């Protein structure tokens, strides 16, 4: 592949992912075009871009999922490349092909790889061919009897996982604990899969008790070079969606770390992967074995923790690879030397996970040593009900895990303030202060097992608390002295 120069990039996304990509483009002096729906016309990513194009009304199908309008916006703005970020069209093989057919540069893996890895059944088949261990399961589940027959023949006991063959993000994924739950779970998973991905094909797998979610970041160029950037631990999830990630993983020893990372590299080389991507595994802490889950053919939300421990810019690498450049490093050059954490600050009720929409009336953004913020909002911004609830990513780093956690505690408890909408911040703080988390003793069931305890640790604060604190201080330094009403 000959090298070419990207002159302007359209970012086919919004909020946090769009802003993140813009930071790298600014470093590279590459102009960017933002796209926006009607309710996003005053969003942070629109203000930050060099130009912006309105692409439709609020529903994603009329705006951020409208492929034709994305292509038209790129051409109208003079962009010659498109970066999809994460979510929306990021793992849509048809969109990737449409971008390339329009004569634009697609900043991501090939459409063929996206299509193959987007089908969990095909991805599992390719993993087996690459000698990557996979979870025992059954493909193309048509009905209850298919699952029951597989469980009898393979001597598999409940619980099992029902999964949509397409897509990700926890949608169309259900844990089934008994035979009575099976019919309803299949119906629900099929409905969610059809609604979210337009494909109701299902598969069933053995459920790994006390599982840990480990993923390996890989980057690859078009010259045959494939390099892993080590692993991330993404075990702490709610509703099968991650909310806290860290790198490296506290679950792995060096032997398993090397094995899982080189297994991921072998798979990506086998499938002809290019650009940045992630191989996800489930790690059985009881047996110390790991199993392939899927390949995410895009920039991951949690890529920032890998950047913190390696000093690399993964978005920059994606742009370089799309221009035809070889990776500027080899595997032996990658030496992580820090520990990093990331928490996702979503606009959700921390007790129920219900979405919280409205206007951000106050926003205090954390600062201080070892802190990195990926922010998609500003004070006074409206949080619309149509899209993902992510407001910002908070990341901290330190020489070891204890110091990274200490910095995160400071960031969440002292420096962050969001008013006008509820956020997950109280839950995130409770988790990182929990003894089991600090000891590295947790699984994907941690939140559901400890939810009542975590909620009991919340410290409620609001504007009235601040006013009272100021009033007390003024009274103490004045002739009045403290008053009874205080």
Short note summarizing the structure:
The protein is an alpha+beta fold and 486 residues long.
Task: Characterize the structure shown.
This protein has 16 helices and 21 strands. The protein is an alpha+beta fold and 486 residues long. The chain is globular. It has 3 domains: 9-107, Rossmann fold (3-Layer(aba) Sandwich), CATH 3.40.50; 136-206, Dna Ligase, domain 1; 211-463, D-amino Acid Aminotransferase, Chain A, domain 1, CATH 3.30.470.20.
Produce the secondary structure layout.
Blueprint: E1 9-11, H1 15-27, E2 32-37, H2 44-48, E3 51-56, H3 67-77, E4 81-83, H4 93-101, E5 105-106, H5 111-118, H6 120-129, E6 137-138, H7 144-154, E7 160-164, E8 173-176, H8 182-197, E9 202-206, E10 211-220, E11 226-238, E12 241-247, H9 254-270, E13 275-284, E14 289-296, H10 303-310, H11 314-322, E15 339-346, E16 358-359, E17 362-364, E18 371-375, E19 382-383, E20 390-398, H12 401-415, E21 417-419, H13 425-433, H14 435-438, H15 446-456, H16 463-476
């Amino acid at each position: 592949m000959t090298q070419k120069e990207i002159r302007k990039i359209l970012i086919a996304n919004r909020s946090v992912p769009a802003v993140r990509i813009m930071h790298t483009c600014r470093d590279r002096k590459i102009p960017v075009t933002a796209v926006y729906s009607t309710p996003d016309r005053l969003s942070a990513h629109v203000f930050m871009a060099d130009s912006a194009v309105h692409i439709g009304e609020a529903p994603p199908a009329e705006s951020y999922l409208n492929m034709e309008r994305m292509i038209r916006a790129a051409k109208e703005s003079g962009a010659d490349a498109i970066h999809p970020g994460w979510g929306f069209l990021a793992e849509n093989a048809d969109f990737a092909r449409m971008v390339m057919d329009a004569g634009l540069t697609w900043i991501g893996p090939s459409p063929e790889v996206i299509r193959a890895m987007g089908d969990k059944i095909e991805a599992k088949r390719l993993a087996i061919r690459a000698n990557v261990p996979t979870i025992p399961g059954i493909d193309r589940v048509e009905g209850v009897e298919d699952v029951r027959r597989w469980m009898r023949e393979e001597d598999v006991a409940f619980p099992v996982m029902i999964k949509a063959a397409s897509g990700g993000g926890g949608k169309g994924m259900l844990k089934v604990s008994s035979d009575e739950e099976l019919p309803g779970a299949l119906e629900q998973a099929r409905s969610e899969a059809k609604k979210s991905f337009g494909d109701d094909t299902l598969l069933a797998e053995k459920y790994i008790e006390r599982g840990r979610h480990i993923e390996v970041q890989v980057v690859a160029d078009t010259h045959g070079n494939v390099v892993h950037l080590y692993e991330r631990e993404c075990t702490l999830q709610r509703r099968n969606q991650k909310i806290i990630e860290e790198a490296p993983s506290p679950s792995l020893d060096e032997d398993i770390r090397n094995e899982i990372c080189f297994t991921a590299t072998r798979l990506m080389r086998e499938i002809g992967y290019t650009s940045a991507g992630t191989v996800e595994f489930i790690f059985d802490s009881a047996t110390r074995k790991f199993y392939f889950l899927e390949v995410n053919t895009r920039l991951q939300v949690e890529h920032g923790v890998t950047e913190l421990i390696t000093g690399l810019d993964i978005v920059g690498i994606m742009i370089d690879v799309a221009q035809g450049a070889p990776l500027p490093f080899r595997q032996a050059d990658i030496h992580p030397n820090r520990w990093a954490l990331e928490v996702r600050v979503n606009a959700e009720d921390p007790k129920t996970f219900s979405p919280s929409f409205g206007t951000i009336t106050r926003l205090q953004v954390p600062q201080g040593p070892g802190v990195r913020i990926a922010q998609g909002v500003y004070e006074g911004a409206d949080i619309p009900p149509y899209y993902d609830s992510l407001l910002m990513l908070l990341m901290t780093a330190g020489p070891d895990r204890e110091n990274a956690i200490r910095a995160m505690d400071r960031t969440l408890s002292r420096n962050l303030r969001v008013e006008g909408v509820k956020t997950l911040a109280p839950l995130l703080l409770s988790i990182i202060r929990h003894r089991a988390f600090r000891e590295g003793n947790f699984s994907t069931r941690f939140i559901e097992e400890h939810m009542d305890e975590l909620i009991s640790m919340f410290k409620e604060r609001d504007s009235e608390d601040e006013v009272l604190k100021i009033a007390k201080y003024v009274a103490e330094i004045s002739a009045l002295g403290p008053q009874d009403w205080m």
